[in-house]
Design goal:
The protein is α+β, with helices and mostly antiparallel strands and about 190 residues long. Helices cover about 60% and strands about 15% of the residues. Strands 1-3-2 form a three-stranded antiparallel sheet. Helix 2 packs antiparallel against helix 3 and helix 3 packs across helix 4 (about 150-165).
């Protein structure tokens, strides 16, 4: 059962990757002979991360309608968590490098731990922005799902957690941290 779920998850990730490549193509391009255009719902420009939101989308497929939705949700949450993790890690690294003269390695690790706690807590604050289910010709169900998480939720919780830690609070500069976070978010949009 786990192996089958893994195989379907890998297939879903592959389909999403192909879909992303297809959405990046020019709309006027012609398909090769024998190729068939595939519609990927809940994807495209409006479902990409932006300044205010981290977004993720994915697909789940199963013979069972409920399982299709569960697989899509699991895949999308995994993608959302991964995007948050990568973004937060880059923010911490950049923030640490800018403030390095005032911080030692133990302070950096404390930042990482606090921010990861926030990420783990905040992944539950997501909002579904698109959900569509189709039945395939093979009588399987395919669920397309897009989720978003407001960046402010993450920043506010980071601020609240760091403010409670006296050692980190001394060195923490919210505006510089926020600016670093926004810079990383803009890179995600490119």
């Amino acid at each position: 059962m786990k192996r089958e779920m893994f195989r379907k998850s890998v297939l879903a990730i592959f389909v999403v990757a192909v879909a992303m490549l297809m959405t990046n193509c020019k709309s006027g391009e012609k398909l090769n002979k024998g190729d068939k255009e595939v519609t990927i719902y809940c994807s495209g420009e409006q479902y990409r991360s932006s300044e205010g939101f981290i977004r993720a989308n994915s697909i789940g497929e199963s013979n069972d309608m409920v399982m299709s939705r569960k697989v899509a949700k699991s895949n999308t949450l995994e993608e959302l968590a991964s995007k948050i993790e990568v973004t937060v890690k880059a923010v911490i690294d950049n923030y640490y490098n800018r403030r390095q003269k005032n911080m030692d390695e133990s302070v950096e690790k404390r930042y990482e731990e606090l921010v990861r706690q926030v990420v783990d807590q905040k992944i539950n604050g997501y909002k579904t922005i698109c959900e569509k289910m189709v039945e395939t010709p093979e009588k399987k169900y395919r669920t397309f799902l897009a989720l978003e998480l407001p960046v402010d939720n993450i920043l506010n919780d980071v601020y609240n957690n760091i403010s409670k830690d006296q050692e980190l609070k001394i060195d923490y500069d919210y505006e510089k941290f926020k600016k670093t976070f926004e810079e990383e978010m803009s890179k995600m949009n490119d």
